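Model the whole thing, not chain by chain.
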Amino acid sequence: MNGGYPAGPLARSIAWATVLYLLLPITIVIPVSVTDQRYLSLPEHGISFRHYANLLGSESWLASIQQSFWIALGSTLIAVTAGTLCAIGCWRIGRRSTELVRALMLLPLIIPAIVYAIGLYRWFGTLDLLDRFLGVTLAHGVTGIPYVVITVSTALAAFDPRLEQAARGMGASLGQTLRWVILPRIAPGIASGAIFAFIHSWDELVLVLFIASRNVFTLPRKIWDGINENLDPSMAAVAVLLIVFTVALLALDGALRARRQ
Amino acid sequence: MSAPVAHALELRGLSKRYGSFIAVDAVSLRVDRGQFLTLLGPSGSGKTTILMAIAGFVAPSEGAVLLDGADITGLSPERRDFGMVFQGYALFPHMTVAENVAFPLRVRGLSRADRDARVRGALDLVQLAAFAGRRPSQLSGGQQQRVALARALVFDPALLLLDEPLSALDKKLRAELQDELKALHRRVGRTFVNVTHDQEEALSLSDQVAILNHGRLVQMGAPEALYERPRTRFVADFLGKSNFLQGTVREVGATGMALQAGATRLVQAGAAHPAPGRPALLSLRPEKIGLLAGAETAENEVAGTIASWAYLGAGYSLSVRTADLGEIRVALPAWRAPIAPREGLPVRLGWAADAAVPVLEDADAA
């Protein structure tokens, strides 16, 4: 804000305390990841990158990373398609009842993941989707929809409805209007939604614990097991890589938004 | 542009209700091929709803829209073949000027070469060929308006619909673009339907003006006919300025009638009149009243004093207080004005028997 009053010392210290509170637990994994010990600890005699080497040389870690990536990509595709169509549909109909649809789409955010996971477990059992790539991708895709609905609805709120009228009036079909007028205008919103949906799947654990066991072993699942079983510092190394990857995605989102303005 | 193919538009008993609110009430009208029709009315008069019904964005509750005699009421907007200039232009911000103008052609699946040629032609038509590569946000309001016009005309539509095309512009630019729009209409020879609340714009642009109030068509005709022979008080008041003189019919003759307003006797030319003893209302334009000097006389004379006055450049606007007719507004040319106006100055007003027009009260006209 320009021209506002500068923050007082109390406000400043509270703000910094909050920032530290948010960041410190995350940054603690950085020194841990370069420890020279064999267990999760701070470095004692020096810095060592052997846990990173270990991680990148381990087939089981790389397999998990790969699996997580493909699941995240597939579920992002599902979430973006369904969420974008839903947001556009609600926007075009524009009646009071569409508010209900939009609220319904946000349910995965509101309902505790564990409740949802129990339901999925029962249901996927009968559908033979347990511990399968498709099952996890579907579950992550559906729970990623809210992020896309929110970002695309926000982008549509700024869209001048007369542009759609103009396109239709000039003879454009609904499909042409969607492709040439609406989608280019809301593309940044879709991209934001896609990034959030990707991150959502990338670090989702609760659902995976319920609906996957051996065949599907995503990265968060592997970290979880690692912490429970052997306290290997490779976990800290993978956590650092995860942070770097997520920050890169968020930076991409920021760059896309900046380009829009 | 290829050879002009103009179309005739007809509305038959068009009505639009929103719940219990009647936005458009049984409007019937006809525009001939190549005519420029303006729907004129205050806000809430239903003019925009009628335009949207012609475009197909609003489904009428009753009635029909006909193009060259064919009923198009049930067609969706994209199948009606009209060009439209939207309020605020609705240019696509993510496309260049050329891409905007090419849009209707792209939709119709024209080849790139055909598209480019016609886009150039349309941009030449509105003198914007040099701006083809710019984005709409880099253009002035007047230029954006011209891009919208080029985009609406590039595919040779049957009809051009204009929704308050000049309302976003400042006054000087508006006058300029009015002239351009009129010249463009002549050049492309198509049927134009324009919506506005600006009576000057309606008078200067149109072949036909339809005046709307509360969803009803009050009167339709050529601008001169509407201005000179308004049917109701609303029309006389909305188109230009008018004085309203209230009197009682005294005598009715073959060529006119005599009215009594207090102690003042008025003579009014014209054929059809109400019966003696009935009240009558006359509309008298401020510019048709003269100031009488010395021994000068007129068919109608009334004495009063100047209550207030304003200098408007081309003329003075006087408000003259009279005993029997209330305050009468007089437009006086400033060039060699017979008097120097000041408040309280006694004056004699005079006007010819055919200067005023009998009009109906709005309630009686319904």
